[in-house]
Amino acid sequence: MASEPVVNWDFGAEEETPLIAHGGVHRDVPGPRPPSYPDFDTANTAVKFDGQGAYYSYDDPGHLSPFDFTNGDSITIEAWVNARDLKDGENLYIMGKGRTGNPEFAPDNQNWALRLRGVKGKACASFLFATPSKGSKSHWHRWTTADGFIPRTGWHHVAVTYEFGKPESVQGWIDGKQLPGNWDMGGPTTLAPVVDDDSVWIGSSLGGSASNSFRGYLDAVALHRVALDAETLKKRFHRVGEAPKPEAAPESMPKLGELPADRVTVTFHEGMPSHTQWLDFDEDYPAEIIRWETSEFLTPRLPLRYDSWGIRDSWNAPVLVRMAADVSLPEGKQTFLLRARGLSRMWVDGKLVAKTGALQGSPSGEEPITPVAEPPLPGHRIKQHRLHEETGTFQVPKNGTYRVVVETMAGGKKFRAEPGEFTVALLSPDGMQYHVLGPVGSPDAPLPLTDEAFNNALVRIESSLASLDDENRLDAAKSRQPFWEKRHRLAQEWAEENPGPSIPKSNTAANPIDAFIIRRIQEAKAAVQGTSPDEAKKFHSEVLPILRSECFRCHSEKDSGGLQLNSRDMAIAGGYSGPAIEPGHASASELMTRIRHEDADMRMPPTGKPLSFQQIKTLETWINDGAKWPELPLSVEESELAPIVGDAKFIRRAYLDTVGVIPTEEEVRVFLNDDSADKRAKLIDQLLADPRWADHWVSYWQDVLAENPTLINATLNASGPFRWFLHDSLRDDKSLDQMVTELMMMRGGADDGGSAGFAKAAQNDSPFAAKGHVVANAFLGIELQCARCHDSPYHSTTQEDLYSLAAMFARKPLSVPKSSSVPVAFFESQEREPLIEVTLKPGAAVQPQWPFSDVTGIQDNEALGPYLEDKKDSRERLTALVTAPENERFAEVTVNRIWRRLVGAGIVEPPHDWEGNKPSHPELLKWLARDFVVNGYSVKHTMRLIMNSDLYQREAIGDQQDIDPTRRLFNAPQRRRMTAEQIVDSFYGAAGKEIEVETLTLDPDGRRPASNRNNLGRVERAWMLASISNERDRPSLTLPRVSVIDDVMVAFGWSAERQIPRTDRETEPNVLQPAVIANGTMTVWLTRASHESPLADLAVEAKSPEQLVDSVFLRFLSRMPSDQERVLFANVLRKGFEQRLVPKDQVKEPGRLERLPQVTWSNHLRSEANTIQQEHAHRARVGPPADPRLQPEWREVYEDMVWSVVNLREFVWMP
């Protein structure tokens, strides 16, 4: 029976029915071709799927389309397949309709699907559909052929035919042969399948689940609305000769042509078919993605992968890593040492001399503990845990240059793409020493395979790879430059058409900020002239507290009923019911009527107890007396400008506010001795250009944006580690509108540091609603936390507002999950009208639309077009609505955040919730925002402006944060404690040490995917730390040294888990803070004059006790000691100072601690794993050995002196 197919995708140059590609879909690869497949064209092409969620999608045309099948409809699905890898029980998705994971449709909505199912080593044809669910899996119905073909044996034709409602009609065909089969899930059924308008997908299902994704090649995928007859299906398959057998390609050394002299060339090729075997005879190496040149055969990590915008992306593993160079070898038998984590091989002059096996999967805890490896020779570096190590020999015929090529597989479908210390070493002629192999003509001395030399090389190599990463990232980011130049040009044009306030004229202020501040103070002084102090005191002590505690929560931050009561004018103006107060007439005032009302539903306040008799009497008297709202007189402390700080305080403050660490002793000395008039401005410019500026700001955005990665099982609202996207953006000095846009576009690798990690919110029934909350909170000053489950009781925002943002992120309508709705029973059980309201019904579809035009001033209309590249993309529209200059709220919220970070209190408080909270300096805020826009949304520009102001450089004696905005005059900055990150980083910096803790991973051997057990890398700054908690509370799953620093961080307000966005940390003093600085393990590490530490060197090299005291004060407090302090501490150190050094011939170097076996996720359930980690914890508590050059008695006095300085209050407070 012949039939025109509904569709036939042959993946030629252009499909009549276009498909949309997602993920690793590769077109124009060779398909079945003559002579083996004579029915195809000689240039026939197919498509390759990487098996990691790659797929094609095609939208269903609509109701009762040709793609919809129900009872009585016949179907044939057919395809040519070349499956590369299929394990028993796996299902590789060829094509189907439904079950895409689209939340608009029921989850189990498979209308039809053709898959390959692994059975006893063969790929069988499998047909799948679902009937309407009745609460059990019996609604799934799968039929699978009893036989199949062996994967990796070339092209095969598969087909199934079926008439829905007649289970006996099903037929399966492979290579022109009808095969028997059985209904192996759900059994046969006469019920009709689920029918809806979900999409058709080729290559995957379930939102792109890797476990359901096709690995290999597809061609000629077709769908028919008839059951093709046997004769037609027999003729579908025509192959000349036998099916090719799985056959590995010859292991021949790649021909690489001329290579650079004196360098090792390393190339990286992603998308290898398998991590367990090399290419088959009919496969080609993937194209080279990145090339790197280095000094020796040592590759400890892959370069970072970036997308076309320069945002971190994931490698398509397995990745082939190839090192190659021409090397000089002496005549004779040479022995090579090869170390690699995965499948590897090495050639010398075309001869295969060494191979290693493939990386094996993780047994999830029960793997035996691997003993510490033996070194290949005494004194040599041992191989890393689970690294393969093999030796091979090559007979060199004569002295000369020979080509060496070595390859390894990094990562796999379920492994992170990490090669370990991929190394080749050569044994010296005397057999006593291995050296890492280097290229001919290298100017560098051979690198010994010892810990010291190897570790030094790793630092150099990391610097080289980091430079390569920067180059690749910036090169990719150039593609965005024209777009952002256009955006900023449009923003400047808008700012010219909408100028901000004029700068006040001032004879004393050189900085615009100071001009605004001085004028505001003058206005405030004038406003309180003539005010009765007694009258003002009575109002603020008796009346205002009642209004604030009983009325403001509904009628200040939120204008419930259109009424605000946070000023006299607002109260008189009233709301929907008219004026709230009639000055002089309490009995005629609506406020008093509602307060006294006997009906609980009418009485105010709506919750809690009614006002007391005394409270009512106080308000009544106040209104009858005229409802005056006098300002309190200004005190000297509130209104007089604070003095400018000295140079020592300024340099410490400037360093902490820019690079997040205190200055070094030398930096302080140079600045204090500089007599130039503009040295402060120069220092500000220098610090804003320092790369460490990015390190300081990352931690702030981590809190504000709720970055919440985990090392173990994801907890509530766990995100990807988009910290790296933030750090890259800050280091590259991206404008803030660009950084926010790219964050919200959620690109790159979700688990690899891309902004796609922002999209993740584990265990959350509506992740995009969570992200809408974050964005509104961070950049619009709109608090939506309560709107998650109901309309906000104390704000004007609704649940629909939040889900409108979520729908814009999702690029489609979204429904409110039942789990995010207040049950109806809650309202039915209330005796009076509840404070909360639900205006959005559970399950109601919310359209992607902009809900904040009134608040932000920007409309979602055609005027937005110039800011967009894809006008139909609601997510991109959302980014423009948030960041375009017409949204004045974005710039104002941003400069207010910068201001608060530097001055200690915001112009608007709190920065994340502006509703009902007026700015203290509205004109200054508007001027700063316009200046921010005009200068390309540059955070550094605004910081430079603020830091050069007199306000920033005044003594920090202000108390501005928690007061009425009318009293927030900014005559002085707010007193601030250092952040947890600043304390840790500064403590390490002052001690002259690097942070030496465990790598942030519980899977150091890379045998788990990043989505399951990530590796957050080496900790260099405190912001890089993350939660290491585990719900199992097992010692084996701890990182003891990381825990030590975590404890300090937590004591000072840091949170290891950020489930919600946070502008403010806990800053109240607590008993842990002095305890952790005085007695904590980190303090032991950093105040000890440990072996070869900078503190020990300082003591050894000191010329006098006074000089040593000066150095310690400059290092830790950024100032010289007072005369009294110098005398006090110098006298303590003077005893024994001349005899403090141990004679050189008596100095005994501390011994090395015994190496302990590696604990990983793979072996953490073994009892020995707990013992090992407990020993690591013990060693951490003991701390580093003391420096043997110093006499113990004097050294301990010196350490006590350092400890005393560190424990001065000023160490943890901003000056």
Automatic annotation (TrEMBL):
Organism: Blastopirellula marina
Domain named Cytochrome C Planctomycete-type: residues: 551-608
Domain DUF1549 intervals: 638-811
Coiled coil: none
Pfam families: Laminin_G_3, PSCyt1, PSCyt2, PSD1
InterPro entries in alphabetical order: ConA-like_dom_sf, Cyt_c-like_dom_sf, Cyt_c_Planctomycete-type, DUF1549, DUF1553
Every DUF1553 domain range: 875-1131
Protein name per Swiss-Prot or TrEMBL: Cytochrome c domain-containing protein
Superkingdom of source: Bacteria
